[in-house]
Amino acid sequence: MHVHHQSPGQSADSVTIIEVGPRDGFQSVGPYIPVETKLDVIGALHAAGVRRMEATSFVSQAALPQLADAEQVLAGVGALRGLDAQVLVPTVRHAERALAAGADHLSFVLSVSERHNYGNVRRGTLASVNDLMQIVALMPCGTRMRVNVATAFDCPHEGRVEAGAVLALVERLALVIHDAEFALCDTTGRANPAQVAALFQAARDRFPQIAGWAFHGHDTFGLGAANVWSAWQAGVRCFDAAVAGLGGCPYAPGATGNVATEDLVWMFEQAGIRTGIDLGRLAAVARDVVALPGAQTGGRVRDALAARACLPAGTVAA
């Protein structure tokens, strides 16, 4: 099965959910998760119908020891038929590692906020734009690129990010590569549905040459699914989510993870919008993920389904 990025001709009643638990979720877990366990989770997600996944990240092994096994994970997922496995790369050096390991779908990240970019990848935003330029020059024919624009709505250091700053950065990036998917990321989970709709509408109107748009949201204030729905109404058809809402940070009390994959599958399927993902099988994977030592999870649908399954026949709730 080939998953299409959003395009003008894409069906209005289908959506692509990109599972980021194996990267954004696992990186927040302190205790090391063995490669076999990571591949088991990825395999079970694939069996549930997930066809696009951020499988791992090629980053500093000292900074993120949880993802030091990126080469092994990427090699392991190669056997999963029809899986589009993208890998996150923050710099040229790590992109070279990913390409050498056989990656054919790179996911680059940089922040609108200069301060956040320094904290995240140890360089200024324009230096990251230059990195992207070098990576694009390295990419073999047939390699795909996704550009993640972090802090597109809010910065943990500087607060709300103005739409004009986001659009100015996207303009620079679109000169480097326009046939990539561009993801606007709610890094802190502080975005609201009105802000999400307005920014995507402005971006899609201003950059018709950009091949596709995606939204990466967090559920910090309980608005993850609402923000996704708002982006959907603004024409976005690709959404990041993590199984069991995996994410957060053990060193930041109150921080929560990505919007839960099972919550988005429930929301879209209830609205008659096809995800291609089996909710029952997905919920079973989510329950296994919740049991991982050190995992911080979220989401509502998993528990709601479990509670409904336990109701005795004939029970009527007020």
What does this structure look like?
Keywords: Lyase, Metal-binding. Belongs to the HMG-CoA lyase family. InterPro entries: Aldolase_TIM, HMGL, PYR_CT. This is Hydroxymethylglutaryl-CoA lyase. This protein is an alpha/beta fold and 318 residues long. It has a single domain (16-310), classed as Aldolase class I (TIM Barrel), CATH 3.20.20. The protein is built from twelve helices and ten strands. Strands 1-10-9-8-5-4-3-2 form an eight-stranded parallel beta sheet. Helix 2 (35-47) runs parallel beside helix 3. It is globular and about 60 Å long. Mean pLDDT is 92; it is low at 1-10.
Which key terms come to mind for this protein?
metal ion binding, 318 residues, 8-stranded parallel sheet, TIM Barrel, 12 helices, Hydroxymethylglutaryl-CoA lyase, alpha/beta, two-stranded antiparallel sheet, hydroxymethylglutaryl-CoA lyase activity, HMGL, Aldolase_TIM
Provide the low-confidence segments as ranges. 1-10
Count of runs of 4 or more consecutive helical residues: 12
Strand order of the largest sheet: 1-10-9-8-5-4-3-2
Q: CATH topology, which one? A: TIM Barrel
What overall form do the CA principal axes indicate?
Answer: globular
Query: Could you report the average pLDDT, rounded to the nearest whole number?
Result: 92
What is the CATH domain class? Alpha Beta
Counting structural domains, the number is 1
CATH architecture field: Alpha-Beta Barrel
The number of E-state strands comes to 10
Organism: Hephaestia caeni
Family: Belongs to the HMG-CoA lyase family.
Domain Pyruvate carboxyltransferase: 15-283
Keywords: Lyase, Metal-binding
